[in-house]
């Protein structure tokens, strides 16, 4: 029978088993939902861990929250896609150096019927203006993520203030890329998403890519080592090893080799070392 | 509706094939939520019992606060624990953020008020029945509390189950303090949230079916312990 004493020791054993798991040669990468939802890490990290014995733990949140977490020293490496915010993070002493890592692009997906009639448009500013004027719905991340920041800058370029239609035709979900796609598809709204998440997304229903190919839709990812002078807990050696590997030929080749449905999701563009 | 059939098929397939990742996630879910339940009971039962037998100024207000805390939003608890365990926070030096221990702490904070508030009610009702007997035996307050908890142990099992149910089902707190890290802090609910965000709804639903089955299993085990213990007691 269970009695109080062995209940207590059982609870103690369960508690003690906890911290021992996260030790030594492991690093925490603060990253974005788009890279995680695309399946890239599931492909890359086993290759890296095999070569170096370093375990990489990925926390996937929006770019805004990832940078905030890294600024609180809760991570060793930051891998996000919002260059102005990354540079601000560096200026504030949060990180050591920012390096371009890879890119893909954003696309606008919409329902089969294409209610705003933007199918095939390449000029993203014109497409956004058309959507806004048509009264068709548009679902936005609304979460200060890299994708959201990009979307807001595209609206600004188009000269449209979507906030005026917030809650009406402009729906801010305040959640991750996948959750926003689920919500947008549920309400028949257009959604701007990075291509990698879209290709890997399982609940497409009758949705397809309507707008793509504009240079403004370029999506650059950068990688930063969290500043070990500010954050003494940072495993700088293992973190730098991970960054060096990502930027090396081996890492860049591995990124290029990741495919879903025989489509390449990320295009490596690290500067030559 | 096709998704539902697909979900049950997938759930069965995952369980039948003994998927290693699934087993790891299930075990972590149980470890975190059962640990939180034990700790919450260790804190909540004595608090509830003391409140049940004590009369003091402001008791009514204390009970209202305690009952209201049963409605603590998990995401707020997660945020509070994150702010404390973050490297920049007051407990950051412990290095507990993104570990199962942080998840246990968050869930304990979440369900300890539930255990305390429900056990207070159960034990107060019991106390009303036995108050005169206790007085005639001249028991100290500590002895009274121990006698009450022992006598109400079967009802208190249900209180513990209510706490466990809340812990194992919540996603808001463990998502923030655990980070949903694969092979480290991923539990059933955060895995379901992840698969939903990938748009893999059948797999998300299948994991939900498995989570429900586990909750059913835990309840069945506790129920059978209770029934066999009662049979022994009255035999």
Give a concise summary.
Chain A folds into two domains: 26-103 and 220-268, D-Maltodextrin-Binding Protein, domain 2, CATH 3.40.190.10; 105-217, 3-Layer(aba) Sandwich (D-Maltodextrin-Binding Protein, domain 2). Chain A is built from eleven helices and twelve strands.
CATH superfamily of the largest domain in chain A, by name, is Periplasmic binding protein-like II
Q: State the order of secondary-structure elements of chain B, H for helix, E for strand.
A: HHHHHHHHHH
Distance between the termini of chain B: 50 Å
Q: How would you describe the shape of chain A?
A: globular
CATH architecture of chain B: Orthogonal Bundle
List keywords for this structure.
heterodimer; A: 273 residues; alpha/beta; D-Maltodextrin-Binding Protein, domain 2; 2 domains; 10-stranded mixed β-sheet; two-stranded antiparallel ribbon; 11 helices; disordered N terminus; B: 235 residues; mainly alpha; MetI-like fold; 0% strand; globular
Polypeptide structure, described:
Chain A has 273 residues and is an alpha/beta fold. Chain A folds into two domains: 26-103 and 220-268, D-Maltodextrin-Binding Protein, domain 2, CATH 3.40.190; 105-217, D-Maltodextrin-Binding Protein, domain 2. Helices cover 41% and strands 24% of the residues of chain A. Chain A contains eleven helices and twelve strands. Chain A has helices at residues 4-16, 33-37, 40-52, 63-71, 83-91, 124-134, 146-158, 177-187, 195-200, 236-247, 249-257, and strands at 26-32, 55-61, 77-80, 95-111, 138-140, 170-172, 190-194, 207-211, 218-226, 259-260, 263-264, 267-268. In chain A, strands 1, 2, 3, 4, 5, 6, 7, 8, 9 and 12 form a ten-stranded mixed sheet that branches. Chain A has a two-stranded antiparallel sheet with strand order 10-11. In chain A, strand 5, helix 7 (146-158) and strand 6 form a beta-alpha-beta unit. With 235 residues, chain B is an all-alpha fold. Chain B has a single domain, classed as MetI-like fold. Chain B has helices at 2-16, 20-53, 59-68, 74-85, 100-137, 141-151, 153-169, 172-178, 188-197, 201-234. In chain B, helix 2 packs across helix 6 and helix 7 (153-169) runs antiparallel to helix 10. The longest helix of chain B has 38 residues, at 100-137. Chain B starts with a helix and ends with a helix. The model of chain B has no long low-confidence stretch (mean pLDDT 93).
